[in-house]
Amino acid sequence: MPVVDLPPTELDRYKPDLTHEPDFDAFWRDTLDAARGAGGRPAAGRVDTGVRAVDTYDVTFPGWAGEPVRGWLVVPKGRTARWCVVEFQGYGVGRGRAHEHLLYAACGIAHFVVDARGHSRGDTGDVSALSSGPHEPGFMTQGAHDPHAHYLRRLITDAVRAVDAARELVGAELLAAAGPSQGGGLALAASGLATGLDAVLPDVPFLCDHRRGALVSDRVPFREVAQFLRKRPELAEQTFRTLSYFDGMNFAARASAPALFSVALMDPVCPPSTVYAAYHHYAGEKEIRVYPFNEHEGGGALHAMARVEFLRGLGDF
């Protein structure tokens, strides 16, 4: 895939205006207060995965409206970790199998792998029935008519409650939010909404600069928005207003924890300009690793160890 977005010199300057509405902070304060007010406590049961070098737990915690969300907690065997990484999943991806998530624990870091409910590999059902109205197949336009009804309101609430659960369950001194693609967008949401984060690790993050993404990318998930508006052009401004409540650059502007971003300049799924939009608005200390010849896989295994080293630089383990 050749470079199809802005050239690097323009990416270095690309900082679109924030899109948050006047009630953005109140919207999220009320949403999270309601979720926490629904009650429930996280619970973890140890499971035998056949991997002897780590301890693994099957976690259930209350998310949106107190509904149960699942996750794997994989920890260094027999000891307490100083860091815990709360990792969110990409679009259409659930938590998978526990033995797929060993790197962080092998490096001495607790790893809480959060399920994305309703996605293809997720093993917790999507029981939220609030989204209604016309929408394109997929998740991006479910509830496009109203931010209170949009699917992403529920998913982002789950992400913040996952950070709450990790703080209660793991007992780690330091917490990081991380994830690739949609997971990176959720990490950015957590960076602006959750309290007490010590690092943020968004890789080729999705859910940023929605209007540009829908104009530039011809791949799902941004394509869902363009397809929807091709059929219902009269709903364009309402749709982008709704999506502004879930835009990573609006959350990034409210963040304070040190962050390590990654971006791939040949990425057709999350065009690099959308990543830079969030990066340039990120309010905390930040750095970005650029992979000029990579697509949506980003920095892959190389960047996985870059994340570990970044955490080590913030608080050795």
From TrEMBL:
One Pfam family it belongs to: AXE1
Gene3D superfamilies: alpha/beta hydrolase
Keywords, sorted A to Z: Hydrolase
Active site per UniProt: S181, D267, H296
MF (Gene Ontology): acetylxylan esterase activity; cephalosporin-C deacetylase activity
Disordered: annotated span: 123-143
Residues engaged in binding substrate: Y91
Domain Acetyl xylan esterase: 1-312
SUPFAM superfamilies linked: alpha/beta-Hydrolases
Enzyme class, broadest EC rank: hydrolase
EC number(s) given by UniProt: 3.1.1.41, 3.1.1.72
GO BP term, example: polysaccharide metabolic process
Protein name, UniProt field: Cephalosporin-C deacetylase
The organism of origin for this protein: Actinacidiphila bryophytorum
Gene symbol of the encoding locus: axeA
